[in-house]
Amino acid sequence: MVRAGYAALAIAACVAAVAGILLGVFSTPSTLPHIRALGRFILYSTFNVFMKGWWAGSPEAVTATLWDYRGIDTVFETTVLYVAVAGCVALAYAGLRRGEDLREGPDEGGGLTVVVKAATKILFALILLTSLNVALHGYITPGGGFAGGSTFAIAPLLIIAAYSTNAIISRGFKFRRSAVLRSLGLLGLAAVILTPLAYYGYVLQNQVKAASSFPGYPAFLGPIFLGGSLICLNMAEFLVVGMEYVLVFIAFYFLDKVLRR
Amino acid sequence: MIPAYTLLVLLYLSVVALVSSILAIRSRDLVKAVAFSAMQSVAYAIIYALLLAPDILLVYVAVGVGIYPVLTLYAISKTRRFEEVREGG
Fold first, then answer.
1. Shortest CA distance to A85 belongs to which of A182, A14, A225?
2. B2 falls in which pLDDT band (50, 70, 90)?
3. In Å, how far are A71, A149, A173, A180, A242 from A176, measured between CA atoms?
4. Which of these, A36, A112, A152, B20, could form a disulfide with B36 (CB 3.0-4.6 Å)?
């Protein structure tokens, strides 16, 4: 039954791939007729090296908006997701008996055929690389922490579909480890956000600003372009979001075990 | 201005999304409903690409075509596949 669903999903993915290729061949980017003043300001100043009082140190206007011009929005979004996942995990814990712990069982085997498993192994590595690329280059190309984390979540999901949930747990995505990693990501986020305060700067300050003695995060490391705090914030967000999805999958598995007895 | 063929492709994709949404709601087979829902996500993803929103596209493809259908299929595997036909419904 579920296998039929996966087959339908595979067909949908193929349709998407074909449509994407057709789109790339036959279409040219559409030009927008009108850009509002706020949008024009952000596009004009986001990578304007001659106006460093306003720039974000990143040519990617969307990432610059998400983490610099409108950073507080993203911070609270991350917090909302964190609390929601905490509720999901609490639900998994709530079904436990007194003194019981969330323990992982041995790998039971089973799952889909050898062909699917081999393909999954290749795809797993490719998806990990892609997600890391999307998150790491989020300040230059489209993408960023949340997109990278969501892409990363597909990798354990594939393993769950082809093998079992136990398979990802026995391959290193442990419950406690994921929880600790996501909290570490959030702490890193907080550290990058609050560090300018120690220099009498603003919260979420990225580059040098007027009326602030914080010199700004480094935009360049020798010849390498860094994008100020954006690269650190993107990588921390990647860790938080990716580990949160993994945590939800594992919590579902434990919930399933609790409900079955 | 937005070129006419872009608007035509947008119209086509919107109709595909609308039809697959209606099919997803009307389908009694829940697995088919999830597949139709994923089809709607694919159409929307291409619309995002046309409207030059690649940042949203990256998240939408991962969530709309990957995570959401699989989680819904998991939920369906815990219950029955077919919706019951109610009398006079």
1. A182
2. low
3. 29, 18, 9, 6, 14
4. B20
Provide, as residue numbers in chain A, all residues whose Cβ is less than 8 Å from the Cβ of B38. 8-9, 12
How crowded is the C-beta side of A138, counted as CA atoms within 13 Å? 33
- Highest average pLDDT, of A75-79, A97-101, A253-257, comes from A75-79
A-B C-beta contacts closer than 8 Å: 109
> In this predicted model, what pLDDT tens digit does every residue of A207-225 receive, in sequence order?
888 888 888 898 888 888 8
Closest Cα in chain A to B3: A30
Q: What torsion do the CA atoms of B61, B64, B69, B70 make, to the nearest 10 degrees?
A: 50
Q: What is the DSSP letter of A47?
A: T
DSSP string, A127-170: HHHHHHHHHHTTTTSS--HHHHHHHHHHHHHHHHHHS-HHHHHH
Q: Give the total residue count for chain B.
A: 89
Q: How far apart are CA A107 and CA B64, in angstroms?
A: 30
Q: Is the ipTM of this complex over 0.85?
A: no
The mean predicted confidence, pLDDT, of chain A is: 84
Cβ of B73 and A5 within 8 Å?
Answer: yes
d(CA A156, CA A160): 6
Dihedral of alpha carbons A111, A116, A117, A121, sign: negative
Chain B nearest-CA residue for A142: B55
- The candidate with the shortest Cα–Cα distance to B60, out of B76, B73, B47, is B47
List the structure tokens of A187.
């702490």
CA angle A166, A188, A223 (to 5 degrees): 110
Q: Do B73 and A2 touch (CB under 8 A)?
A: yes
Name residue A28's amino acid: T
**Which position has the token pair 């003695």?**
A213
Burial of A97 (0-12, 13-18, 19+ CB in 10 A): exposed
Of all residues in chain B, the one with the smallest CA distance to A12 is B39
